[in-house]
Structures are given as structure tokens and as C-alpha cells.
Specification:
It contains 14 helices and 10 strands. By secondary structure, the protein is of the alpha+beta class. The radius of gyration is 21 Å and the shape is globular. The relative contact order is 0.11.
């Protein structure tokens, strides 16, 4: 059954426990127990909220209230996640269809979606970077996602994301409004302009998670339990997820860029042959390009400390390019 967006959605309606019970009956969940302190604002849309419930069997569920402007994207995301799971992509928590076969339930002016919720085990970054099995688990997930997405036609709404266009726009804005920052990153931009811009458009794209950072991985004792926050998924350069993750690892600890953990991860991805040789030739530059996303994020949040650290990190990457490539066996 097709989902049809209702009109006049009221985003200020305050729900009580009875309302939640009525909503969850659409998914045949009875006697839900609201977990304390679990009304969470949706980080991808401040107008949305997340609420965590437990059912009679103890399973946890995440009820998401979305806004009108999220409707089309969320519906496409739900359909995509369902397709991926049906084609063997594990570790995702797909949205659930209600008793009418719809992903989105309309209740008194609210647009509601439901998916499983996993708590996992909190693991400090400096600890899990010492565990080889975590590198193996991450590589296995990236490989599994590629294999599952290659089997299906993944819907792509709007224009595919272009990291090159983003870097160019960000650089133009810095040069215009913050010329001292633009000057500080001039060698970084030159590296990308010379070695990435002319070739990236001709390289293969693939369906990617899009925000594959450590904070979006939920761990069990000896494996990944689930991967969260798929809102940025879509067609991107095929090694985008791996490049973004490696950059995140290095930002927190630059020495981790050339650690056994990172080298093991890269080696396993190379041995799996999921990326073309031409992609590996610009893997370093793609990693560097993703840092512009984080620079933009730090500036948006007015986080001057991380903004300045980010620029230092980007320049460090650029000056140490040959050394890093040698350590990655990509020279």
C-alpha cells in the first residue's frame, strides 16, 4: 500500500502515554513501557523527536516523530533499508511497516515511524583501536554493504552528493568571508585540485552509508551489533565510507592513521576487491576531502577549538602524504 502524505501536520501536539499506546498498536505493540529520559531531539531535523519504548518481551523500539519536510526522504530511506536487509545486509535497524503495510503512521497531526533500538556497549575510541577484531568487523560490514547494494537498484532522490562540489563551495566561501582560513588551507586545496578533481567524476560510485564514523557503530562484546544513522546514505564515490572513517580515526589520534588497525582495515578492503584500482589511487585524497565536511560542521557549531584542530590535521595530512601512502602500502 502506498504511503500518502497527509496535510496540515501539527508539529506542536504534545502526546501522553495513552497517545503512544494508540500509535504503537499500529505495529501490534501492546503495553509499551516508556524508557525514562528518552525523549531525544532528532539531530537531522530539530523539529523531529525520538522516543524509546520497551515492549512486553523486553525488546526496545525507537518511535520517531518526523516533520513534513522529512516525509519523502524518510520514506525513501525506509524502502532502501528494507531492500538492503532483504538482500543480506546485516547490522542495520530498518524501519518497520505497520499493520497496513505502511512505513509512516499518521496520528492526530503527527507523522510516526518505528524501528528497533539497540543499546550496545560503550567502548572508548582509544580502546577499540587496539582490537584487531574490530578492524575485521568494520571491513566485513563495508564489504557486506557493497555486496548487498550491488544486487538492487537503490533509489536516489535528487542529485547525488558531490564531495568535489562541496570542497569547491566551501573554499570559495572561506576565501570570500574568512580569507585567513582560505590561505591556511591553500596547500590542502591544491593537493585535491591537482590529484582528485580531474579524476573523481570518472571513478565508480556505489551506495554508501554516508556517515560511517565510530559514533554510529553499536558494539557487542566481540562484534558490531548495528550501524546507525543512515540519513546521509546514497550514491557516492565507492570508497567514501572507508575514507570518511579513516579520516575520523586520524582526527582523534593522528598516529592512528598509520596504526596496525588502520593498515589492517585497508588491507582487508583491498583483498576483497570491492574498489577499482583507480579508486585506491586517490583514496588518500578522498580521505582528505571528507575533512572539509567536518571543518564545516565545526564552524556551524562555532567550535573554534575543533575548527583549528581540523585545519592543523588537514595540513598535517597534506604534508605527510607520501609517508602515509607508504604506510598504507598505496605508494
Amino acid at each position: 500500500m502506498l504511503d500518502i502524505i497527509p496535510y496540515l501536520v501539527n508539529r506542536v501536539f504534545a502526546m501522553n502515554n495513552s497517545d503512544y499506546e494508540i500509535i504503537l498498536r499500529n505495529w501490534r505493540i501492546k503495553s509499551p513501557v516508556l524508557n525514562s529520559s528518552t525523549h531525544i531531539q532528532d539531530s537531522f531535523d530539530p523539529s523531529g523527536q525520538l522516543t524509546i519504548f520497551s515492549d512486553a518481551d523486553g525488546a526496545q523500539w525507537e518511535l520517531e516523530i518526523i516533520s513534513e519536510n522529512q516525509y519523502s526522504r524518510k520514506l525513501a530511506l525506509a524502502e532502501t533499508m528494507e531492500l538492503l536487509e532483504s538482500n543480506g545486509c546485516s547490522l542495520i535497524l530498518p524501519y518497520q511497516r505497520n499493520s497496513l503495510g505502511q512505513f509512516i503512521t499518521f496520528y492526530t497531526g503527527q507523522l510516526c515511524m518505528l524501528r528497533p533500538c539497540m543499546s550496545g556497549i560503550a567502548t572508548p575510541r582509544n580502546q577499540w583501536l587496539t582490537d584487531d577484531w574490530r578492524a575485521d568487523a568494520i571491513a566485513a560490514f563495508i564489504i557486506n554493504l557493497r555486496q548487498a547494494s550491488d544486487k538492487i537498484s537503490v533509489p536516489e532522490g535528487g542529485n547525488p552528493f558531490s564531495i568535489i562540489d562541496f570542497v569547491k563551495r566551501k573554499t570559495e566561501a572561506l576565501n570570500r568571508h574568512r580569507p585567513e582560513m582560505g590561505e591556511s588551507l591553500s596547500s590542502v586545496y591544491s593537493c585535491l585540485e591537482n590529484d582528485l578533481f580531474s579524476v573523481l567524476y570518472s571513478l565508480p560510485t556505489a551506495f554508501c552509508h554516508g556517515d560511517f564514523k565510530p559514533e554510529n557503530m553499536v558494539w557487542e562484546n566481540d562484534s558490531i551489533q548495528s550501524v546507525l544513522n543512515w540519513e546521509h546514505c546514497g550514491l557516492k564515490p565507492e570508497a567514501y565510507d572507508a575514507a570518511l572513517l579513516v579520516g575520523c580515526i586520524g582526527f582523534k589520534n593522528p598516529d592512528a592513521l598509520i596504526s596496525d588497525f588502520t593498515r589492517r582495515l585497508i588491507l582487508q578492503l583491498r583483498e576483497a576487491s570491492i574498489y577499482q584500482d583507480e579508486t585506491w589511487e586517490v583514496f588518500f585524497e578522498l580521505t582528505l576531502a571528507t575533512r572539509y565536511l567536518w571543518l564545516s560542521e565545526w564552524m556551524r557549531k562555532h567550535n573554534k577549538k575543533n575548527r583549528d584542530l581540523e585545519m592543523l590535521f588537514m595540513n598535517l595530512l597534506t604534508t605527510q602524504k607520501k609517508y602515509i601512502l607508504k604506510k598504507w602500502d598505496l605508494a
